[in-house]
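Might I ask for a little of your time on a matter of protein folding? What I wish to show you is a protein chain and, alongside it, a tokenised description of its three-dimensional fold. I should value your view on which stretches of the chain appear to form regular backbone elements. You will find the record immediately after this paragraph:
***
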Amino acid sequence: MPAAASAIAAGEPGGSRCALCEREVQRTSRHHLVPREEGGRHGPTTDLCQPCHSTIHLLLDNKTLARRYAGIEQLRNAPELQKYLHWIRRSRIERISNRRGKR
């Protein structure tokens, strides 16, 4: 899916592709590759499914995201996410509970 089409599909029902797990999903949300709190407010974004977006923020803090994983390829290769990515790529799950507060 071209970047422009992906941006249009973000957050809207009808199907789009998650940039991290690369699954076809009903909805995506916009993820700032450099978190807004770390200076990425106007920086690049990517479209992620809800499980991937929640898991990234569960497993990686904003400083780590900004310093080590400021690109989608870096996120795909992050050791902290490998077990999760192996699981989610084989799953049809669209939503998981937001576990951010359970650190």
Summary: Helices lie at 3-9, 50-59, 62-68, 72-76, 82-88. The first helix runs from residue 3 to 9. The radius of gyration is 13 Å.
